[in-house]
């Protein structure tokens, strides 16, 4: 049986990629247990690809986005400075309605590989960029893609050093708002959670949570992999990687952690977790 990685969730569907054959993608409806295969795209063969998946309500269409670094050759004459000053990527977009891949051309950003799965908020997909020269310094930023007008843009961060040059940062969607998980320097796996309360308004960024260090087993630090959602109780549902993946509930009032693996009988070898809302509205994609 093939193994799949989850690339995204939107409007009741999941986008999956075969773990062994990255050009083999499909859309899966867990509610109906049906799927449709996406035509293979070999343009980015042997390249490291960043993905995105979302629904365009204007055209009632699902889109899959594939982004790969545009080949820029490093040379001793120009050095790394010139190499990092030219961050561009090639973009391919698939539409369920047309059932074809289209070449979107080049966008002026490169994306971090740990940002492999685009985060969908307010009809836009979001990724963390690689280091690029901004205001005279090399730093990361948040890149967005609008599913309606096919435009790429940049989201301003809470502070200039939020996405530090050498520290991994992760994006997520919390209660419909874009959020950033920022590791705290020299504090193990502790991290801050910033939330953009009003989309497009930079001043609405707030530091909503600070989560301390969590150990899965003695002396094995848990590394935050993703922030999945806020539960009705106000607790955070987190995915950690350590001696195997683990789903963890964090109580921001009591500052306590609780692993769910044993009580939910979750296998230690699971690869990925994603917050997903199912429904019947996705049935039209399978007609």
Automatic annotation (TrEMBL):
Pfam families: FBA_3
Record domain F-box associated beta-propeller type: where: 6-256
Family annotation (InterPro entries): F-box-assoc_dom_typ3, F-box-assoc_interact_dom, SCF_F-box_component
Name under which the protein is recorded: F-box associated beta-propeller type 3 domain-containing protein
